[in-house]
Design a protein that fits this description.
Elements lengths: L1 E3 L2 E3 L5 E6 L3 E2 L1 H4 L4 E2 L4 H13 L2 E6 L9 H11 L2 E7 L7 H5 L2 H13 L11 E5 L6 H17 L3 E4 L6 H10 L7 E3 L8 H8 L4 E4 L10 H13 L6 E3 L19 H12 L4 H16 L9
């Protein structure tokens, strides 16, 4: 079962982008362009409809509370576009909100569980994934947040998607989540497209996690050529069942109406590059369909005696 903003579904048949933002507001840290809000909903819906023509069936919005997340708007966007949307529980880290800075692991866990099982931000829209991350250096609040996320995941079956500010943080993410007894096959370590070479992906993949190659067509960082080469090399190492592809649209200028490539870029622009590198169509569909669907499917919750 996958929990979407319009209700639970048994399965999603189609391509899935698992690391995107349909509503987000990071303007306080990064400037006014880093906001996709109510005014941009028509442009977002337009982009999703275009992506749907390339097989998009579902998308995960990884925006956090206090930083532009809008569950009610996500439901409207899903209904208008015909694309399933998964909303995220969790907290942003640059800076941490007061609840993440001061609350106990148990209090943060309970807040996440409530958003997954009851609803988020005063709505009945339930979250289907947990998003946590680290800024420049992992910190004590970050460790409490990660431990709370693992506890909430174990209680609800929800997967965890982590944000790395640099690929080197992956080891810390894995170590903390493992120590909190998280099922690592239900974890995505994001932004691993910035890894120096495929050997780092191989090392991180040993933990059983998914690897996010999730900044396709992003304005800065590795180019699409570099990302396509990395995906090819990772597939050659047998990692195709652990790769998640996405584009992390997080600002107005990335929307088609504002001159960007929009939510269709992975499917329209990047997939042909993977085919050019000899990656079989079945493998590409595994990365776009099977892997994200497997990740988003709520795990069975163990009931203690």
């Amino acid at each position: 079962m996958i929990r979407t903003v319009t209700g639970d579904v048994d399965a999603i048949r189609g391509r899935i982008l698992a690391h995107e933002h349909l509503q987000i507001d990071l303007s306080a840290q990064k400037g006014p362009a880093n906001k996709v809000g109510e005014a941009e909903i028509p442009a977002v819906v337009e982009d999703l409809r275009i992506a749907k023509e390339f097989g998009l069936a579902a998308i995960t919005d990884l925006s956090a509370p206090f930083w532009g997340r809008d569950p009610a708007a996500l439901r409207r966007i899903s209904e208008a576009s015909g694309v399933k949307v998964v909303c995220a529980a969790g907290f942003y880290w640059d800076p941490f909100p007061e609840v993440a800075e001061k609350a106990s692991v148990e209090a943060i866990r309970d807040a996440m569980i409530a958003e997954i099982e009851i609803g988020a931000d005063g709505t009945d829209v339930c979250c289907g994934v947990i998003k946590v991350g680290t800024a420049r250096e992992p910190s004590e609040p970050a460790e409490r947040l990660f431990r709370a996320a693992a506890a909430a995941a174990l209680a609800t079956g929800a997967p965890i998607i982590t944000h790395t500010s640099s690929p080197g943080q992956a080891d810390w993410h894995i170590r903390v989540l493992e120590s909190a007894c998280m099922d690592m096959t239900h974890v995505v370590i994001s932004h691993m497209g910035a890894a120096k070479d495929v050997s780092h992906l191989v090392e991180v993949a040993r933990a059983g996690v998914f690897l996010g190659i999730d900044k396709v067509s992003f304005p800065k960082g590795p180019t699409n050529i570099e990302l396509a080469d990395l995906v090819r090399d990772a597939c050659d190492k047998g990692l195709e069942r652990q790769l998640i592809l996405s584009s992390d649209v997080a600002r107005q200028t990335m929307l088609s109406r504002h001159g960007g490539r929009g939510y269709a870029t992975v499917l329209r622009d990047f997939v042909p590059m993977l085919k050019e590198r000899g990656i079989p169509a079945a493998t590409i569909e595994m990365m776009l369909r099977d892997n994200p669907a497997r990740m988003l499917t709520l795990a069975k919750v163990k009931v203690s005696a």
